[in-house]
Write a structure and sequence with these properties.
Elements lengths: L5 E5 L2 H4 L3 E3 L2 E3 L2 E4 L5 E4 L3 E2 L9 E8 L4 E10 L3 E4 L2 E4 H6 L5 H7 L4 E5 L3 E3 L7 E10 L3 E10 L16 H26 L12 H11 L9 H9 L1 H5 L5 H12 L4 E4 H4 L6 H11 L5 E6 L9 H12 L5 E6 L34 H9 L1
Parallel strand pairs: 16-17
Antiparallel strand pairs: 1-14, 2-5, 3-4, 4-14, 5-13, 6-13, 7-12, 7-14, 8-11, 8-13, 9-10, 15-16
Helix pairs in contact: 5-6, 8-11
């Protein structure tokens, strides 16, 4: 009877904490190493619970922040969980977990148990037959790299097992057939895995950064370079909801709120018209809010904490998202009052009670008081 495949998985911070790290950093995303550094990760002793287990494969999910860093994988295996070191019986698990023994020294001690080595995101473990298995990841290079997930699958599954018995009678011939079919089996399994996980490329919350450009084109978002990655993911994920309001004031305010982290105000020309009751007010309001029915003013609160580099970005977003026939003004509020300029009660100005000068480090001499003293 064919045995179901099992696996060991490292994809959480607590999983990696069961191993031993040397010169590596551990985060919620996985294992990582800084620039101009070398390091290693030793896995704990993995127990298949069965003697002479035929191990199948090891898969890694690697994100290279820089192409100058490489990861070398060394696979060790043993039928027993103890070994002799200088004539003394020692626990393999204790050697792995010891922080007093360096990674280089551990490699020397485990030399007799080394079964396989390699690089890449998948290593076939065919030919390794033992109950216990452990591995070392060696990081070398000048850049940064992130190991998100490690998966060790067992027992071995071979397509040759599905062939008629006549192909399995001669061990030498069977070995060749098994290895030959293993090439196509590996390709097939990799393609099957991609097909099963294809949905992750379409989910903006988990898709790799390289796939975001495709999703951006699908939803028709312009100038995606203006957006930080987390905000870009949010925009893609909520595109359908936002586009229902496209071309409206509410839509533009929503888009700018995502970029700024603070909701702006938009004043349309028709909202100002009722206040143009005198020539003086008309001149003032036209200077502040424009002179035609096809103009609107975007007012950004000082709490948004933007700098000068953000202003061209905001202008570009407004230009992309506003109706084509409309014009726009951009006003960044300052936290003080200028008569005849954009001063709004409760936004960049407040009313408070009159206070005389108090030497408490908080109050100051009011201008009205100084003027009264001058009159005297």
């Amino acid at each position: 009877m064919k045995k179901a495949q099992k696996y060991f998985m490292f994809n959480k911070k607590m999983d990696f904490q069961t191993g031993v790290l040397e010169n590596l950093m551990l985060s919620e995303k996985g294992l990582t190493i800084g620039q101009n550094a070398t390091g290693s990760f030793y896995s704990p002793l993995l127990d298949s619970r069965e003697k002479k287990t035929l191990w199948h494969s090891m898969e890694l999910e690697i994100e290279k922040i820089s192409n100058t860093t490489e990861v070398e994988i060394l696979i060790y295996a043993s039928e027993e969980k103890e070994c002799y070191q200088d004539g003394v019986l020692c626990s393999i698990e204790e050697i792995i977990k010891s922080h007093k023994i360096t990674a280089l020294e551990k490699a020397e001690r485990f030399q007799a148990f080394l079964k396989k080595g390699g690089r890449g995101e998948e290593i076939l473990l065919h030919g390794i037959e033992a109950r216990f298995l452990w591995f070392e990841l060696r990081f070398t290079g000048l850049g940064e790299i992130l190991i998100k997930k490690i998966k060790i699958i067992f027992p071995k599954e071979s397509w040759a097992e599905y062939l008629p018995d006549i192909y399995q009678q001669d061990l030498k011939s069977y070995s060749f057939v098994e290895r030959y079919l293993g090439i196509f089996q590996s390709i097939y399994e990799k393609m099957t895995k991609e097909i099963r996980q294809i949905s992750r490329h379409f989910d903006p919350d988990v898709a790799e950064n390289e796939y975001l450009s495709c999703l951006v084109n699908w939803v028709g978002l312009q100038d995606s370079f203006l957006w930080e990655i987390p905000k870009l993911r949010y925009l893609i994920g909520h595109a359908a909801e936002l586009y229902r309001k496209r071309g409206t004031v509410s839509y533009l305010m929503d888009i700018l709120e995502i970029y700024l982290g603070n909701r702006p105000y938009i004043v349309e020309y028709h909202q100002v018209l009722p206040f143009m009751t005198t020539q003086r007010k008309e001149e003032l309001l036209k200077r502040l809010y424009g002179e035609n029915n096809y103009i609107f003013t975007v007012i950004i609160d000082a709490k948004a904490k933007i700098n000068r580099k953000d202003i061209p970005m905001i202008d570009r977003i407004v230009e992309n998202e506003k109706p084509a026939h409309m014009e726009s003004n951009l006003v960044i509020l300052e936290p003080y009052i200028f008569l005849g300029w954009h001063s709004y009660l409760g936004m960049n100005s407040v009313l408070s009670d009159f206070h005389s000068m108090v030497l408490d480090g908080q109050a100051s001499i009011p201008f009205t008081k100084l003027q009264e003293e001058r009159r005297e």
